[in-house]
Amino acid sequence: MLVISACSAQPYSFGRGHVVGDAFAHAGFEVVETAERIRHLRPGEEIPGIVAAVERFKPELLFSLTPENAETCSAELGLVSVPVVGLEGRHFFNPGPALLTGLAQLAEHTQQ
Question: For the whole model, what pTM was predicted?
């Protein structure tokens, strides 16, 4: 799976070595992002956007972490060829007890 944040400024994806990527790996998912920690997905970078990341890594599932204060999310989310699962970013962005809530939300979405 690929986990991204695409709802504030420029999108980025999470790899191992970051609390988000590691949390998904510990939950049993194969994290396909190869960058350590995070990768910015923007024009001029190695991977210029969300669609390009999906084409390169070929995940079976895309998790999009949405911050509470996000006003808009990347339109590229509607163009990907894999299922997109939206999760509340506030449960994942900072290590601590909220991460347990995020993992419970993750389990709920993946058992459906």
Answer: 0.84
